[in-house]
Fold:
Amino acid sequence: MNDSFEPQILAYCCKYCAYAAADLAGSMRLNYPSNVKVIQVPCTGRVDILHLLTAFEGGADGVYVAG
Amino acid sequence: MIVADRKPLEEILDMIKECNKILLVGCKGCVTVCNVGGAKEVGILAASLKIARKKDGNPIEIDEKTLERQCDPEYVEQIRDIFDQYDAVLSMACGVGPQFLSEAYPSQTFYPALDTKFFGGAVQHGIWEERCAGCGTCVIHHYDGLCPIARCSKSLQHGPCGGSADGKCEIAKDVECIWDKIVKKKMEQGRLEDLRTIRAPKDWQTARDGGPRKSIREELVQ
Structure:
């Protein structure tokens, strides 16, 4: 792995907390790395193993679930 | 229900190493109930296989299909139009599934993705235990609903044997001695005398010892 490697990270975020926090960060003009892709879910309880596997299958290097 | 476990991913990958396109067929019967071969598990296995093959630089195409059951010809027929579009078909049913499939489609190759274990039920979420040995002549009424044929390591009709200690079987510390339970239950019910009855040797011809079995219901046969 070279120094320029940037992992692609997929983030499943709860609509009511983690996504709201990300939204607030945006309103405050704060930055977060562009290699993190956020997907809003109604609740992290909705996140299933298939969501995680599909992300990896689609090329994600890491997945996190925030809620 | 029939309880099964999924084969290790490495074993399945080895089975299909020559294939570039496969059909993964699940079953909505017993293996869905024991969370090993239903639509969800089909999706998980397909994704896992695709990720593993992609990582090896040898991607594989996998289509998914989950049949109502794989042990009835009318449901097995549902892949008639597509079965020959694949290098092989991987079945996520019990051992009956791949056999019914290969009988219906002799020109295709079928692989089992599961190891079929036993007839049993869920004792708690995620744990299944054997309850029936399918011996063909049920005797559980003699033992207050506790089957020593399936649940005693020696299938003793008169027990316990000398290997019973502290309610456990000598074969392993986590295996309960069903004869310990039978005796305790008879004592609680004040029917310990029942166990003095000498049972005739069991006729194992109705079990697997009599060869492959068949059940015919005359009123249903057309």
